[in-house]
Write a structure and sequence with these properties.
Blueprint lengths: L1 E5 L7 H4 L2 H8 L4 E5 L13 E2 L9 E2 L1 H9 L7 E12 L2 H10 L2 E6 L15 E4 L9 H12 L9 H5 L18 E2 L2 E2 L2 H4 L3 H19 L1 H11 L8
Parallel strand pairs: 1-2, 1-6, 5-6, 5-7
Antiparallel strand pairs: 3-4, 8-9
């Protein structure tokens, strides 16, 4: 997959792109990330990328010309999505990341800054995505989350595909508690069922824990899961 990130601060991506699973995925050419600075596409001597909003108001807006020029300089793959990271967009979640990882070969990600972008930039955009109901100084951090979340779903990034299937949100529930050695740490013991070797009982315990944890922490997710499964309260017991 190809990621094209339009950002005024390309250096801010150095750490995430050079470490961990993401760094390995890039070195294995599972994905490619290109950083494009719209300032390189300005035509005035001051390389100006922002200006005051028409009608007044506080702050500055990113101008449309450098963003259009930056995006239009890129190759166009057949399955392409042009994304604006925006607090007004669709909230990022696991089904969305899975959709992007499965259905697209190129993600062009525009990182806004200042008070946002000129509204006409939306003529370029096919989707707006938000990290959540809060405001950050720019779109770089949400873009990093998007890159990380999508790239780890690409075949070959994570060694064990089974580990992706059992994670929180993949099946509509939060993950179950997990333990490793030692079996007894400061008096906190690993549940006996996990030491039993009975895989059927372990699977039932894990599902019960998922349901209970989701009920306690994210009842909205549990409600959606029950509706999807056609479940009733009695099935939770």
């Amino acid at each position: 997959m190809r990621f094209d990130i339009v950002t005024l601060f390309p250096d801010s991506f150095a750490s995430i792109l050079n470490s961990g699973l993401i760094g390995k995925a890039l070195s294995k050419q599972i994905a490619q990330v290109n950083l494009i600075n719209p300032r390189d596409f300005t035509t005035d001597k001051h390389r100006k990328v922002d200006d005051e909003p028409y009608g007044g108001g506080v702050g500055m807006l990113m101008k449309p010309e450098p963003i259009f020029a930056a995006v239009e300089s890129l190759p166009v793959l057949p399955r392409r999505e042009v994304i604006l990271m925006s607090p007004q967009g669709q909230t990022m979640n696991q089904p969305l990341l899975r959709e992007l990882a499965t259905n697209y070969d190129q993600l062009v990600v525009i990182c806004g800054h200042y008070e946002g972008v000129d509204e006409r930039v939306l003529h370029l955009v096919t989707r707006e995505i938000s990290l959540g109901d809060f405001i950050l100084t720019g779109g770089e951090i949400p873009a990093m989350a998007l890159i990380n979340g999508v790239m780890r779903l690409l075949p070959g990034t994570v060694g064990k595909v089974e580990s992706l299937k059992s994670e929180s949100f993949e099946e509509g529930l939060l993950d179950y508690p997990q333990y490793t050695r030692p079996a007894n740490f400061r008096g906190w013991k690993v549940p006996d069922v996990l030491l039993s070797g009975n895989h059927n009982e372990i699977a039932k315990w894990r599902l019960q824990q998922q349901i209970q944890r989701t009920s306690d922490r994210r009842p909205d997710l549990l409600k959606a899961w029950l509706e999807e499964k056609g479940g009733k309260d009695g099935e939770m017991e």
